[in-house]
Design a protein that fits this description.
CATH class of the largest domain: Alpha Beta
Helix content: 25-40%
Oligomer: single chain
Strand content: 15-25%
CATH superfamily of the largest domain: DD-peptidase/beta-lactamase superfamily
Number of helices: 21
CATH architecture of the largest domain: 3-Layer(aba) Sandwich
Number of strands: 23
Shape: elongated
Distance between the termini: 128 Å
Structural class: alpha+beta
CATH topology of the largest domain: Beta-lactamase
């Protein structure tokens, strides 16, 4: 039995030895098949994908930024340019962690730059760009000269030429021009698809933002072939960056300077100058203001940022496109509503008195006694309150709102920087019934006091200086609502799409024009003739408005000239400056009118 068992074991061993090559062969074939399948998948099915990865590992693109287009005034004077600056950088492929300390010390001694600062930039920069790390920007000429003299002994270091946005006139037209700023990491996530780089700058506000696509240009760069260790082997080609296009604005530098000058001494306010024929903005100034060069600085502290962004004076806030109580400059709107409704025709005469009671309040006359029986023209000339109370209450809030909408109020003007613009408020019964924008529907009803206030531009009416300029352009140009704009760009701004005829009787328009002319001839703005008798005929309206937010009165003056064939509309606004529009705002507008008239007489270019 034992022998039989041993024979069985021996047979099994022989059988196992016979099967072993077969198993090994099978395993080898399975391995070979797996390798073949993997190679087929890598080289055939995924070949294009891995070739792309290979190229990306072998080829590096060193980007070169484009030159941003300049901003020019209508006569070609530069309002925003690019300033050449110098930056110190190193090429990481030529500077190892071992050689960096020695190079850093020599650079620090030579250029008087903090070692700690360079160390920080070297550490952080290597994570962002393996080909160039910027150590310091805005080098002084003497630093550049010292570096050039020792360039040969500073292997791996170089001085690069960079361009920064530069505004030669500082704060001038800052709210119009806007500023550029580095893009954020969050913005880069979607801007990279539009050709932006992480180190790019973008127009943040104003024209810089509105015309970003035109101004920015396209990046260029050099393709470099590198080996496995990252060393550059050769250049595969260079593509020059494509410069952005220069943009000519409608702004007239001389008028802009005059507008800025007019705001001097005012704590806050705005001046808007508009061509009533086309809607071209010739000047737009706001105070307080800021210097857009601040955002081109290579280094700013948190304290500096807070001083600008958290200032109670809000210098970044454009008063020209923010809304305020218009006061008596609103009265032509009420006059239009009265005539267009048919209830108060152009030849109507109403008795003005000391005050008229609506609801629980007796609304006073401007002079506290009345002007007797007068019509529209004298009501504008004297700026009668009780005349316009009767018109506004008589036609009702819907007729007043309809006239306001026809003149472009309670809507954005269409200006390119409309994303910064306030729509304003023109109160009416429907608006009040729905909660007035802050309350609950049905709990803030329209009351008699509201329509009386709305009739003279108080409490429930707020408009922007730009909206007011656009509305008065209708009276100046024969009845057309224009589109305010800051750049022409070969657009026909007199086409019906941009210049719409306002539905208004000719008698209404002529009555308003005659009344506004009388304001300057012998009314509340008659001092204009005394102060500057050489001006062509001017028409306009003064305004003193109570600040519905609780501050001091606002001062307004709106005018257009020449009266018969107007070329210019000027709105002057002094925020929280009590004393009256004729005292504070009229002299502001006069400065602009004088600059306009001087240029008009001395230059052949139409204004």
């Amino acid at each position: 039995m034992k022998e039989i068992a041993q024979q069985d074991v021996s047979k099994k061993r022989k059988h196992g030895l016979v099967k072993q090559p077969v198993v090994l062969f099978s395993l080898l074939m399975l391995a070979f098949a797996a390798i073949t399948a993997r190679l087929f998948w890598l080289q055939v099915l995924q070949g294009s994908f891995y070739r792309k990865l290979s190229d990306e590992n072998r080829i590096r693109l060193v980007s070169r930024p484009p030159i941003r287009g300049r901003l020019l005034d209508r006569r070609g004077k530069i309002l925003a340019d690019n300033k050449v600056t110098y930056a110190l950088s190193v090429q990481p492929r030529l500077v190892s962690n071992a050689t960096w300390p020695s190079l850093r010390d020599r650079l620090s001694t030579l250029l008087t730059i903090s070692k700690d600062s360079m160390d920080e930039h070297f550490r952080e920069g290597g994570l962002r760009d393996p080909f160039r790390i910027t150590l310091a920007r805005d080098l002084k000429p003497e630093q550049v000269l010292r570096f050039t003299e020792r360039d040969g002994s500073l292997k791996g270091a170089q001085v690069d030429v960079e361009l920064l946005r530069f505004y030669p006139y500082g704060t001038l037209a800052s709210h119009v021009l806007g500023y550029t700023q580095s893009i954020t990491s969050k913005e880069f996530n979607f801007l990279r698809e539009k050709g932006y780089e992480i180190s790019d700058r973008i127009g943040r506000t104003g024209v810089e933002a509105a015309y970003e696509k035109i101004l920015r240009g396209k990046w260029g760069g050099e393709m470099l072939e590198v080996d496995a260790t990252g060393n550059v082997q050769r250049s595969l080609g260079f593509k020059s960056p494509e410069s952005g296009k220069d943009l000519s604005l409608t702004i007239d530098l001389e008028l802009q300077l005059a507008a800025e000058k007019a705001l001097e001494g005012k704590s806050a306010g705005a001046v808007v100058v508009l061509d009533p024929r086309t809607g071209a903005i010739r000047a737009m100034a706001s105070r307080p203001t800021f210097d857009p060069n601040f955002f081109s600085k290579t280094f700013t502290t948190q304290k500096e940022y807070d001083a600008l962004f958290l200032s109670t004076e809000m210098p970044l806030f454009s008063r020209a496109i923010n809304s305020y109580d218009p006061g008596s400059t609103w009265k032509p709107v009420t006059a239009m509503a009265g005539m267009e409704s048919g209830k108060f025709p152009s030849d109507v005469r109403l008795k003005t008195v000391r005050c008229i009671k609506y609801g629980s309040h007796c609304f006073p006359e401007y002079n506290r006694k009345g002007f007797g029986w007068i019509g529209y023209e004298d009501a504008l000339r004297f700026s009668s309150n009780t005349f316009f109370y009767q018109i506004g209450v008589g036609v009702g809030s819907e007729a007043l709102y309809s006239a306001a909408k026809a003149l472009g109020f309670d809507a954005l003007t269409g200006i390119e920087i409309g994303y910064e613009e306030s729509k304003g408020i023109v109160g009416n019964k429907e608006w009040a019934d729905q909660g007035r924008g802050w309350g609950k529907a049905g709990q803030t009803p329209w009351i008699p006091e509201d329509i009386a206030s709305a009739s003279i531009g108080q409490a429930v009416v707020q408009v922007t200086p730009l909206q007011l300029a656009r509305a008065y352009a209708v009276f100046a140009n024969g009845g057309y609502l224009v589109t305010p704009h800051l750049a022409d760009l070969d657009v026909d701004w007199t086409a019906p799409k941009y210049r719409k005829k306002v539905k208004m009787q000719s008698s209404t328009l002529e009555t308003l024009r005659r009344g506004l002319r009388k304001v300057v001839e012998s009314g509340t703005a008659s001092t204009l003739n005394i102060r500057s008798p050489n001006l062509p005929p001017v028409a306009g309206k003064t305004g003193t408005a109570e600040d519905s937010t609780g501050g001091s009165d606002h001062a307004w003056f709106v005018c257009f000239a020449p009266y018969e064939a107007s070329e210019i509309v000027v709105v002057a606004f002094a925020q929280n400056t009590p004393g009256g529009g004729s005292v504070h705002a009229l002299p502001m507008a006069l400065k602009v009118l004088e600059a306009w008239n001087k240029n008009r007489l001395n230059n052949s270019l139409p204004l």
